[in-house]
Amino acid sequence: MKKIKWGIIGLGGIARKFAKDLNETEGCEIRAVASRSQVKADEFAATFNAQKAFGSYEDLMQDKEIDIIYIATPHSHHYENTMMCLEAGFNVLCEKAFAINREQAVIMIEKAREKNLFLMEGLWSRFNPAILGAFNDVKNGLIGNLCGVKADFCFHFPYDADKRLCNKNLGGGSLLDIGIYPIFLSYLFLGKPIRMNAEAEYFPNGTDKNLVMLFDYENGEEAILNSSLQYFSPCDAYIYGDEGCIRIHGRWHEANAYTRFKKNMDEPITKGFGTRPFSFKYEIDEVVACLKEGRKESAKWSLQNSLDLMEVLDSVRKDIHLNYGAIEETKLS
Length: 333
Known about the structure:
This protein is of the alpha/beta class.
């Protein structure tokens, strides 16, 4: 059976993890990689057995052997890079956050549909077996009526204005890098909130370092969410029902187990999945299945899901008065 040939642009830490998992996924191979540095591209290609290495993204666009391109550049470049790939006729998997704002995401999706190409946001936790298992337990009523979600993602990152994670001009900060995960979990289980309240603390350069969010939903459910680049937490997540609850073991966004409790706390049931933490395999499997079946988007994480998530992220940013400035513009140079 024909292998799916991948291109990768943006060769930082996430791309290295992705390439490692890609090489371990049946039916895939790395056709080409691209960086703004030929030296970096050559090193990456040698490490991960890519067939070609390019010193510019534009040069990679000329390789028509590629079936799909994975975009692992900073958030600030997702819109520009996705549009370039789609215009060149390539299917795209774009790392989360999908874009800087919903307006950009809408244009990306319109272009993919115009070109009849596959497009998906790389929100890899959506395909994690432990999270899927917890979701199915809730769907099957095993904790009764759903009442709420509590989730965080917190770790200490020493402030350095030159680092991408602290650079607002690259879309850095707590919200788009790690806050997106608890927001995603609340969306997965509860949908879009009808009311939200968010508060943030900032690094000296105005990048958000701590974020606390309270979401309210149509049927009275609530979500209590937070993210931080200042302090550490075990990163457990809890799904609450009126007949029990589920704890997704930390770090929950890469969990390999969850525990379901009855409301009297008797006989907890733990389910383990033997998955490797931080594995992109399940996301890659979904993309491969979509491509082989001729689907232009995933049913498990649809383009509408990405639009909904971007809408919530935009609302949080409005609440905390966070603006990314020039990188929010949607016009391409």
